[in-house]
Structures are given as structure tokens and as C-alpha cells.
Write a structure and sequence with these properties.
By secondary structure, this protein is an alpha/beta fold. The protein folds into two domains: about 260 residues, Spore Coat Polysaccharide Biosynthesis Protein SpsA, Chain A (Alpha-Beta Complex); about 100 residues, UDP N-Acetylglucosamine Acyltransferase, domain 1, CATH 2.160.10. Helix content is about 20%, strand content about 25%. The protein contains nine helices and 29 strands. The longest helix has 12 residues.
Length: about 400
Amino acid sequence: MRDVLAMIMAGGGGQRLYPLTRDRAKPAVCFGGIYRLIDFTLSNCINSRVRKIVVLTQYKSLSLERHLRLGWDMLDSELDEYIFPIPAQMRTSEEWYKGTADSIYQNLYFADTVNPRYFLILSADHVYKMDYSKMLAFHQEKGADVTVAAIEIDQTVASRFGILKVDEEDRVIGFEEKPERIEAPGSKQPLFANMGVYIFNSDILRESLEEDAHKETNHDFGKDIIPEIIHKVRVFAHNFRDENKKEAKYWRDVGTIDAYFDANMDLVAPDPALNLYDSDWPIRTYQGHYPPAKTVFAQEYPGGRLGICLDSMVSGGCINSGGRVQNSVLSPRVRINSYADIRESVLMEGVEVGRYSKIRKAIIDKRIKIPPKIEIGYDLEADRKRFFVSESGIVVIAKGTKIP
């Protein structure tokens, strides 16, 4: 893996995840209590022994860059190991990144100082566990010029993904981005979706990006680069090998509020689909020095205060002072006051819920103070007048919202 340069595309605005992305880049959105979305890609790199990593930032990157500085300053520069954030610098034009391929093209100047044999191109906003060294071994074994990570999907969701057509030797012979209709493959051939993870031989990537830069395209890997090169060079599909140690493979694009909410709710199930407790494949992040979580008051008589947390993830520094928390994810330093009732919700760092307040199916951003006796998630018509409500009825309270 010493010959690999990982380039993580982390500049996306994440409009579909609004309002969580109103003040931060999508890869910096909190997930699972203590993590940021980018932590999964970075952890995969570290666990795969990838030690040369650059993170390409652009949109509202302050929160992301601060997280990288605090939580990911772990590699030894004297051994030529690093995680560098590189902000958009308009090196090839006076425009910001025009697409995923353009973000790499505008930063090839950095690659010139590294001269890697292989480029590992990654997205910063997917939740999954993957050993990239196994993908590189597949790439070398096949004598590939390009390898695309692919996951088997059901035909009913094919319109949401880039679909790969693969022959018996795993070579990609067709590619279509988010097709409206798709022919079912043969009985022995699975339907593969593009995961947005690529390995390129250095010369092939440079040639492809240079050619694309001088065309009127979307400058996107899925829409332009991969469909263009499958008929020119050896492109293979690597069937995703999950390190999650579960029966079903886990890969989530949490690109919408509903998908983000569902992925968080996955974590509080008795047998969660995503295993965060596997010491063989740890997910790293920055954690502040918080005291242990605390639950107080056990006055179970009628009308008494009962602090209780059921089927929930509760981070350090949280205090449940006589409230009920169920099927919820609490980030650090959340405070639940007496008689409050929290169900199926995601509360980010520093949220405080007042006495007797009731919250259901909500995402509450950082440091929001919920006054006493407020109900959220019980009357969606009333909630829509005050907050953002998703298609499926998830109430989102954006950072900085003042609730009278």
C-alpha cells in the first residue's frame, strides 16, 4: 500500500441533507453519536494500511478541517505518512470544482510530488467498512487499469445507483448512471451498483482526466469517466467484501434526511446492522474529554421522576435527569431534564431538553435548547410551520434555531 495515494472527495454541499448541511460540509455531519461521516472512509484507509491520504475540501469546510486537525493528526510525517486537507484553490481555472473528476484533476499537482503508482479515489460521505488492500490485490491480479468497487443490489433500487454490466471474468463491459429501467442479469449474474470507490493506475487516471477536462461534460467519474474508458482500457468490478462481520453487506449512502435518520436508527437495534464494537476494525474519531454518561432519579411511584434509557446509544457527558430516552442516539453533553420523553430521535452535542417536553422522530442539531412542555413530532402540520420536516415525517431542528 506504500504505492497508493488516497484522494478523498469531501467538498460536497449535500443539498439533500439540508438543513444539517446548512453550516457544514456533508462529510462533517455527525453520525452515531460521536462520529462524523468522513470517519468511516478515513478509518477504512488506516485499517487498510493506506498512509498517504489527502482530503479535498471546498464547501463550508471549517468544521471538517477542525475535526481532521483534532482527531486525525496521528500519522508520522517523517515516515512519509500524512492526512492533508487541501482546500479548493482554482489552480486550473477560475471556477470551483465542477464535478468529482474535476476535483481530482485540479489537485494532480500534489500527486506530482508523490508520484504514486496507484490512485485510490474515495467519497467521504458513505458509511461502510472495506479493506482497500484486498481491492488492490484484486486490481493487480486482474492486470487492471481501473477497478471499481461494486455491491450487489436488488433490481427494485437500481434507479438510485450507477449500474455496472460485468462479464464472467468481472470485466466491466457496460455502465449506466441511475437508469430508469434495467434489464435483469442472468440467473447466475448479480446486479452490481457502483460504490464510488476506484483504483486507477497513475498513467490511466492522468490521461482520462486530461481528456475529460477539455470536453463539455459533467466532469464526473460516474457520469463521464467510467462510461468513457470501459471501451478503451481494462476496467474490472471488485465485488465488495464487507469487514462488518454481518450476514448482509452494509453500505449506506446517507444522502437524504430520511436515509440519515434510518441509518442512525439501525444503530440502536438489539442486533444492529452496522457493528461499531468490532475491535478488529475500529472506527476512529475525535472524542473530547467528557465524564461518563449519567442517569439519575428512580422515583417509580405514580408521578415520580424516573431517569431511564432504553435501546439507545448515549455518549459521554450526557445527563439524563429524570427523563425517558428510548430508541434514540445521544451525542456528547446532551441533557434530558425531568419528565421529558425522547423517542426515536437523534440529539446532537449540547442539546438540552426541558422538563415535560416530548420529542418523537426528530433530529436536533447542536446546542439547541428545547423549552419545557414543548411537543415535537406529534403534530407535523404545526411542526412544518416552525421547522424542516422530511417526506417521511422526520422533524429537523437546524443549528442556531431559537424556540420560544
